[in-house]
């Protein structure tokens, strides 16, 4: 059986989530926009699921929830909405490329906040921004941001790598989440906090975006209902899961730091543990092409990544490592190991052994 440590790309749903999804596929196949009784019942259940998702992820049930099919769809909807379109936006070069492309397309101006060598953001308070858009957990490096709102500036949080794993920052005004990252078979959502002054306009825009302008499709009800169910399961186990994954991360750091590499260099953890999500461990292998290592590990039935899955086949160096000031050569040498809810200590040990063998034979 494969050792799957690419959970930041997609997390496998557990048996309970899959069973729930199968049942919903059988019983929730109607169109939630239909005028008949089944359509009405689905709308009622989706309203309840929105409250459930809000409670599970934001610890309150009154966030406005705009459903979607993927994180990319949510980014595009947000970028085209009054919250972003024609506005001055402060973001960072560490954001997911799907978010950056959407912001550059729609915002009047995009400014970039600097970051420290550990990847922590250093946003200026006098940026003149009308919206701040930052990740909670960086998708490649695993940097965990300590996000604080700027005075008078709404805060959008890309929580796609954090939702279902870590508490959302209480200061968020808007947050994007995706079920694929915390063990749902799909579905995504944009959460608007009750304090966000533009939530009504945003909801009205989202309705027009989908139903009048036809710029995105209708999300499948079974996926959305399962998304809320999976989020509730993750919330119930969050503290225990955090403790367990933190122990796995610490063990992996000990096993993988200082590995001898071709050319005489040694491996090192890119982001200090105190600045990182425990669910992602990023390793730098100086002098080694991590894309080659990923393929060699795959032959040993160990699945990891050289970076974000959406950029896995590009020939350019890691934009995230480049933003941290790494040289072009080093920016090709990053390896992302991401843990899931079912990752075991034995998985970590076998991965470390396989990596040592691959590096020896590189």
Q: Explain this structure to me?
A:
- It is a single chain.
- This protein is α/β, with parallel strands linked by helices and 362 residues long.
- The chain has 2 domains: 3-9 and 238-360, Aspartate Aminotransferase, domain 1; 15-236, Aspartate Aminotransferase, domain 2.
- It is 37% helix and 13% strand.
- A 7-stranded mixed beta sheet has the order 2-8-7-6-5-3-4, with helices on both faces. The protein has a 3-stranded antiparallel beta sheet with strand order 9-10-12.
- α1 packs antiparallel against α6, α2 packs parallel to α6 and α3 packs parallel to α4.
- The longest helix has 22 residues, at 37-58.
- It is globular.
- One of its GO terms (molecular function) is transaminase activity.
List the helices and strands and how they pair.
Elements: E1 3-4, H1 15-27, H2 37-58, E2 64-68, H3 71-80, E3 88-91, H4 97-106, E4 109-112, E5 131-135, E6 155-158, E7 174-178, E8 188-192, H5 199-211, H6 221-236, H7 238-256, E9 268-269, E10 280-284, H8 290-299, E11 302-303, H9 319-323, E12 334-338, H10 345-360
Parallel strand pairs: 1-11, 3-4, 3-5, 5-6, 6-7
Antiparallel strand pairs: 2-8, 7-8, 9-10, 10-12
